[in-house]
């Protein structure tokens, strides 16, 4: 069995040369690294882990990975969707619909929190 290096806040950030090396790894190796990182988050923060979800392809992959992890160890998941007011309506719908689909697929509870700033970006640019 692979020796697990504990995940701590000190080793969450990678140096550019490390990222270059990781890009060359196999998909299975990348999945294992991601699972270890997710495990570290839950070890450090218990159930106070939130996944920031935009509905884009990268965060959709993250949602699947974290949901699979949560299903394997009986955890619930918190998802935060930041609705800046500039997203296409289809993205807003997809983000919530896909979160529900993933919850059903993995049989876990996922809370979906739509975060909306008091002022949208367009108005903030005018104001400030």
The largest β sheet comes out as: 3 strands, parallel
The chain-level mean pLDDT equals 88
Range of strand content: 5-15%
Helix content: 40-55%
Which value, in Å, is the CA radius of gyration? 17 Å
Supply the number of helical segments: 5
Strand tally, please? 3
The arrangement of helices and strands along the chain is HHEHEHEH
Give a summary of the structure in a few sentences:
With 128 residues, this protein is mainly alpha-helical. It has helices at 16-23, 27-45, 57-73, 89-106, 121-127; strands spanning 50-52, 77-82, 110-115.
Looking at this protein, list some descriptive labels:
12% strand, 128 residues, 54% helix, globular, single chain, mainly alpha, three-stranded parallel sheet
Description:
This protein starts with 15 loop residues before the first helix and ends with a helix. The protein has five helices and three strands, in the order ααβαβαβα. α3 runs parallel beside α4. β1, α3 (57-73) and β2 (77-82) form a beta-alpha-beta unit. By secondary structure, the chain is mainly alpha-helical. The chain is 54% helix and 12% strand. The protein is globular, with a radius of gyration of 17 Å. The longest helix has 19 residues, at 27-45. The model has no long low-confidence stretch (mean pLDDT 88). The protein has helices at residues 16-23, 27-45, 57-73, 89-106, 121-127, and strands at residues 50-52, 77-82, 110-115.
Tell me the layout of helices and strands.
Layout: H1 16-23, H2 27-45, E1 50-52, H3 57-73, E2 77-82, H4 89-106, E3 110-115, H5 121-127
Parallel strand pairs: 1-2, 2-3
Helix pairs in contact: 3-4
């Amino acid at each position: 069995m692979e020796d697990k290096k504990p995940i701590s806040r000190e080793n969450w950030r990678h140096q550019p040369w490390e990222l270059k090396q990781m890009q060359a790894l196999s998909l299975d190796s990348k999945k294992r690294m991601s699972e270890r990182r997710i495990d570290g988050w839950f070890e450090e923060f218990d159930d106070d882990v939130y996944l920031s979800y935009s509905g884009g392809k990268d965060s959709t992959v993250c949602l699947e990975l974290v949901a699979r992890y949560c299903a394997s160890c009986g955890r619930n998941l918190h998802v935060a969707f930041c609705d800046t007011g500039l997203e296409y309506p289809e993205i807003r719908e997809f983000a919530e619909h896909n979160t529900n689909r993933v919850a059903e697929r993995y049989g876990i509870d996922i809370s979906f929190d739509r975060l909306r700033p008091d002022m949208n970006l367009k108005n903030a640019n005018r104001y400030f």
